[in-house]
Amino acid sequence: MDVPRDRFEELVGEALDGIPAELARLMDNVAVFVEESSADPHLLGLYEGVPLTSRTHDYAGVLPDRITIYRVPILRICSTEAGVVDEVRTTVVHEVAHHFGIDDDRLDELGY
Q1: Which secondary structure element, helix H or strand E, spans residue 84, and what is its range?
Q2: How many CB atoms lie within 10 A of CB 83?
Q3: Confidence class of residue 76 from pLDDT cuts 50, 70 and 90?
Q4: How confident is the model at residue 108 (pLDDT cuts 50, 70, 90)?
Q5: Inter-axis angle of helices 5-17 and 81-99, to 10 degrees?
Q6: What is the pTM of this model?
Q7: What is the DSSP secondary-structure string of 43-81?
Q8: pLDDT the model gives residue 77
Q9: How many angstroms separate the CA atoms of 16 and 53, rounded?
Q10: CB 47, CB 98: distance < 8 Å
Q11: How confident is the model at residue 107 (pLDDT cuts 50, 70, 90)?
Q12: CA 14 to CA 32: how far, in whole Å?
């Protein structure tokens, strides 16, 4: 499956736009990027930063948290563009959930 990078970036943007407004307003100091792949060929996305639930009163002056969505691994596991849309949405929600302090065990319970 191949989805051009610009279209893939649109899908990531659409997935972010699909986050409920009340949650999107709470996202703080986080940037989202699309990269081709990572050192781990199976990694679809990555959250790096300090989750909102771990920030204390002295949280200040730090670089934004980073969410990276990896294009090639997602394309590799999908056979249709509809599948890519679904996987991008799932991956974006998964990584945004980490920003809110939700761990992988809970995300697995929720189907992400």
Answers
A1: helix 81-99
A2: 14
A3: very high
A4: confident
A5: 50
A6: 0.92
A7: --EEEES--GGG--TT--S-PPEEEEEEHHHHHHH-SSH
A8: 97
A9: 20
A10: yes
A11: confident
A12: 12
Q: What angle is formed at CA 15 by the lines to CA 12 and CA 17, rounded to 5 degrees?
A: 110
The tokens for 42 are 């199976």
How far apart are alpha carbons 32 and 12 in whole angstroms? 9
How far is it, in rounded angstroms, from Cα 70 to Cα 40?
10
Which position has the token pair 């990269």?
A: 35
What does the pLDDT look like over 31-72, one tens digit per residue? 999 999 999 999 999 999 999 999 998 988 989 999 999 999
* Cα–Cα distance for residue pair 18/108, rounded to 1 Å: 20
Structure tokens at 102: 């939700």
Q: Which of 7, 8, 27, 3 is nearest to 93 (CA)?
A: 27
Which pLDDT belongs to residue 111? 78
